[in-house]
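Sequence in, structure out. Go.
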Amino acid sequence: MKRVAVIGGGWAGLAAAVEAVSLGATVTLFEMAPTLGGRARSLEGIEPVLDNGQHILIGAYTETLALMRRVGGDPDADLLRMPLRLRYPDRETLRLPPGPPTLAFLRGVLGCTAWSRRDRLRFLVTSSLWTMRGFRCDPALTVAELCAGLPRAVRDDLIDPLCVAALNTPAEQASAQVFLRVLKDALFSGPGSADLLLPRRGLSALLPTPTSAWLQSRGAEIRPRRVQRLEAAGRQWAIDGDAFDALIVACSSVEASRLTRDLAPHWSAAAGAFEFQPIVTIYLESAGSALPAPMVALRESSTAPAQFAFDLGQLGQQAGLFSLVVSGAAPWVARGLDITGAAALAQAQQHFHWATPPRIVRVLSEKRATFACTPNLRRPDPLVVPGIWAAGDYLAGPYPATLEGAVRSGLAAARSAMRQPLGGMSD
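Output:
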């Protein structure tokens, strides 16, 4: 049996390990953090259960949902599925009804009474042009440049919040080409593809914990330590002296760059060249309170950082627990987490009714939550050198840094590793 090592226990590494085991490999998974899940996990030893950030899945995440089922999960029970709906505290904006994607989009836009009739028609004309062009544009364009001709209400209510939610990069800096691909897959790839899937359980319970049990029940080994060195060992590769037939480097781009610096300097340089965007999550507690919906959009400003608020009680988690999400949060991280938390709390107090005064439970910052998804970004290929593949949401591809991108990358890396003949590292 082929011995495969997977370095990194985030969602890309977990997907790679499951696929390699399924294809007949003996798998060893290395993870330097105390828990699996990478940037989408629950925090250990915290009551109530808090995640390291609020994540939203969508119906188009077909591979992620399939992987959950594969390891014994039940996404139908663990995720609240609801049609795409951007509801603000003061009004409804776009809401997509069920049905065939193109018809649902048309009905949703035409039925958005928050926009004038003229604005709705202008948006439909522009989106029709995007469709006719195959959702492709000049790769040098930003989202702000692409959408400059759209009405201000459409940009404020829809484009800017979707851009920062999907790409974690402000519209003035974000890649228009990647944004169009997200719109294509989410809005037009099939019925339910744009549905929002909100976690009803902690992130670790969604995938990392059941995957760990699934792997170990099938003979895979999980080693909780940081890999120090990769090197050639005859026609194999060695991790700190332990030989394997194939390696899958599924850790962060920074860690992958460190590990491959001597083996593949050009690939390492590309992996180490990313700029990052942070995400800040503010957890609030208010007994007896509830938001108007499980997820409510907010308008950010220089004094109001959060773009979305979540009522975790309505999601089947702890009643009276709420999260506020600040994506593309670099300016706020620079101001400090205490200031960010206080500003988000004031924002929530202004826009929602509270049965009891809300208080901050915790402010979490994932400083390297995603790469900055900017135009013409150079992203490394999955093949590092023969016998070593990378897996991660930062690799070359049409998607931003998402859970679905990570899972797809992990599956692809495992299939490539298993296709290579034994002893073929130098071919």
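Check: The first strand starts at residue 3 and ends at 7. The chain is about 35% helix and 20% strand.
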